[in-house]
Amino acid sequence: MTYDPTNIFAKILNGDLPCHKVHEDDIALVMMDIFPQSKGHTLVVPKAASRNLLDANPADLSAVMPLVQRVAQAVKAATRADGLRVMQFNEAPAGQTVFHLHFHIIPIYEGVALGA
Ligand code: 5GP
Q1: What DSSP assignment string belongs to 59-79?
Q2: Domains in the chain: how many in total?
């Protein structure tokens, strides 16, 4: 599988499409998910071009994972969620719909179903 530079997150990274940005640095863009699974569902989108985890450069992963942790900590504090899921899908059969590597930070609230 190859990387398609016309994917929607590439367009957001290029500034060709808007997003609700919460953070940006040299490594990644952090934005709110347009179809949140729960209040505060946030996406960390590395700037390095890879389709998913399977083709990512290990050095790029090393650079982005501390940011994933910091975003998880910040989302947990901001939402006061009871827990968090950090998720990442690889290829369509596994649920991937946007083919640019990204990490979901999904707050979990006790007694509230995802997607509710
Ligand atoms: P995947 O299933 O590929 O891991 O997740 C893609 C995620 O991107 C989904 O949660 C979906 O709601 C989100 N998404 C799709 N299009 C857009 C968009 O244009 N902007 C933002 N912020 N999120 C998007």
Answers
A1: HHHHHHHHHHHHHHHHHHHHH
A2: 1
Cα angle, residue 99 at apex, residues 98 and 103 outer, rounded to 5°: 70
Does residue 113 sit within a domain?
Answer: no
* CATH number (domain holding residue 57): 3.30.428.10
CB of 98 closer than 6 angstroms to any ligand 1 atom: yes
Q: What is the ipTM metric for this complex?
A: 0.99
Q: Determine the 3-state secondary structure of 42 from DSSP.
A: strand
Q: Is 94 in the pocket of ligand 1 (CB under 6 A)?
A: no
Q: Quick check: is 1 in a domain?
A: no
Determine, yes or no, domain membership for 116: no
- Catalytic status, residue 41: no
> Which is the catalytic residue, given 23, 41, 100, 102?
102
Tell me if 18 CB under 6 Å of ligand 1: no
Report, as ranges of residue numbers, the positions in the chain whose pLDDT lies below 50: none
Atom of ligand 1 nearest to the CA of 87: 4
pLDDT digits (tens, 9 = 90+) for 8-36: 999 999 999 999 999 999 999 999 999 99
